Each structure stands twice: as structure tokens, then as C-alpha cells.
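User: Sequence in, structure out. Go.
Assistant: Echoing your sequence, followed by the C-alpha cells.
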Amino acid sequence: MAPTKPKPPVQVIDSFLTQQDILSALLVWVILEGFSFILLPNFTLISGDNKTLTWILISAPLGILGAIIIGICSSWLQYCHVRLHKTDPHKRLLVALGNVGSWIGLAGIGFPLIVVGLEFWLLIIHGIDS
């Protein structure tokens, strides 16, 4: 039997990847936040006079939690791929849970884009009332 590679310690897997993914997700969220809730309402492409503060108050916790969830799930997925053997009966379930968590985190990060998309859709459906 061929010798197996030594597995890296869990601390090396989790800390760097989690930190890198959280920071990347937060950067994407800040860019989407600025574009969606500051730039577009200032150019009056979407009506946001009285809604902007509400959007930001809802989006801030969703974006921060989404970034944290993305970081944790990416480390979780790497842990599953590195530490669990492919014949492990629980590996598919654990990877699927990691993927679902990543999509939930992406929904939190993409909340500003979702809101702007809904505003544009409502603008197209109802027309410009001003």
C-alpha cells in the first residue's frame, strides 16, 4: 500500500481561508451597497428618498452575517474534502450542508442587488409615476 499524505492541521485550513473569504465577501457587499443604495438613488434611477435608510439598516446585518457564513462554509467544505474520505457515508450530506450555507451567505451579500432588481422590476411594471 502506498503511503498517504499527511493531513494538514485543522487550524491551518480554517483560519486563513475563513479570513480571506470573509474579507472578500465584505468587499463585494460594500461595493453592492454603495452602488445600490447610494449611487442609483442619487441619479434617481430608482426611487429611494425615504427607503434608503431602511434598506441600509436591513442590509447591514444581512451582509455582515452573509460574509461570516460564506467564510465558515468555505472552511467547512475544505475540511470535508481534506479530512473525510470519499467513502465516508456522511460526506455527501456535510458537503451539501456547506453548499446550502454558502448560498444563504450569498443571499445576504446580494441583498442590495435583489432590492434594486425588485425596484427596477416594479418601475417597469407600474411605469414612472413622477
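User: And one key feature?
Assistant: The chain has a mean pLDDT of 83.
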